[in-house]
């Protein structure tokens, strides 16, 4: 029996929280879920650099020691993900969204962030008077770090720099941070969605040209 190897999920968001949003392909309703289990979540977390190898072992041990905690961590992570997506998508759809448009998503994220704060601690640091260590409970390190990072991103990012791979032009709807100097990045990855859109346009042009030749 041959095992079909799934292609690796591309990491192109430019920020771990946007990469989290992009764990559904395409991003709009009905996309394929990549974080299908706590194990998949742990593998993804290590891949994007959210946790190190030692932490992966500690998290696995914590999950095994406390029944149900792995599922809770996955659930919390998906809640953070959908909250962020809801907040950003509302903004992309309308640059001045009505407060009600994001109220539910903000409330969800607030709860996750508050829980993460409760599991964090302040420590003395080398380069500043104090620092925050997020994740005193290994079982919830992943959702806690993501909730913290999400709040940091949302309160500091220039909204014009968060873009969506254009669905109306055949893109996948993934979010990414446009860090190009002139703000010209349009696609999640030119080699993927950009190239596919180009190929589709070319085919359409050729078809139109053929049709006009036949008619002519
Ligand atoms: Zn795309």
Automatic annotation (TrEMBL):
Pfam families: ABATE (PF07336), zf-CGNR (PF11706)
Taxonomic lineage: Bacteria, Bacillati, Actinomycetota, Actinomycetes, Micromonosporales
Domain of life where this protein originates: Bacteria
Alphabetized InterPro entries for the sequence: ABATE, ABATE_dom_sf, Znf_CGNR
SUPFAM superfamilies, alphabetized: Jann2411-like (SSF160904)
Limits of the Zinc finger CGNR domain: 162-206
Full protein name: Zinc finger CGNR domain-containing protein
